[in-house]
Amino acid sequence: MEATTQPVTVQANINAPVADVWNKWIAPEHITQWCFASDDWHAPFAENDVRVDGDFKTTMAAKDGSFSFDFGGTYTEVEENRYLAYTMGDGRKVTVSFEQQGDGTKVVEVFDPENTHPVDFQQAGWQAILDNFKKYAEQ
């Protein structure tokens, strides 16, 4: 597969104030409740050092024990309640913006796709995780 350089965007409008959305995005006890794409997966572990040069890691695992992997990176920019940027272990870049809109918050993630899976597959997976976050954050 040819390398893809075009970043991919996923987004969600969440019916919660930006401070609440931010907290549920960054706090490990919340991350383990939403950071997976489907009900047959879970996130049994998360750690998050939210500062420039701070690292984060979330373990995503199939509930049946058949597969797991760690998703992580290092923060390059942090603006509380507004913006996160990080670099993943393989060098790909990701940004996450949080924008208060009325009583809700618009979350937009932009990521560099990897070259193993089709871009539409990656976009669908990231969107599913963001949709799961929305469901959790609105509880």
From TrEMBL:
Q: Which domain of life is it from?
A: Bacteria
The Activator of Hsp90 ATPase homologue 1/2-like C-terminal domain sits at 15-138
TM annotation in the entry: none
> Record's Gene3D superfamilies?
3.30.530.20
Q: Which InterPro entries match?
A: ASHA1/2-like_C (IPR013538), START-like_dom_sf (IPR023393)
Query: Which family does the record assign?
Result: Belongs to the AHA1 family.
Designated name of the protein: Activator of HSP90 ATPase
